[in-house]
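quick one, 163 residues, struct below
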Amino acid sequence: MDEALAIEIESVRKLKTKALRARYEELFGEESRSSNHAHLFRRVAWRLQANAEGDLSERARKRALELAEDAALRLRAPRRFWHADGSVGLEPAPRRRRDPRLPPVGTVLKRVYREQAIEVTVLATAFEYQGKQYGSLSLIAQRVTGTRWNGYHFFGLKKNGLV
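---
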């Protein structure tokens, strides 16, 4: 790299973000969407080098465009795609393990909070409170109290179900 170019790049490194954005716009002909100092510096330094020593070859540009078109493709299939025997094919996603603190499905959890009786029915994948389904006990506890709670703690659930 030419010494004059190295000096220019070092001077760009010391610029503030606002000045870097202005330099970016000057070099690229468009405003940067980024305000990240490191990103702007790298882009400006690259453009300065490309202008001084020649831009990408036509072959490299063509290849970059090809890669950009394929960028949305996954490089590796999801883990559930591969079977244990080495064959391939989609299998159903593994079911989440049920929390051991939860009592059996159908159990009604009861709690009195500020003289109000709260009854929650445990469903297979949710909880029912006042005719509505909730994804967690914490949401119900928050709805009842108006503040965030650990739902298991609020309903007195320990590792082996009820207290």
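The chain has two domains: 3-69, 108-162.
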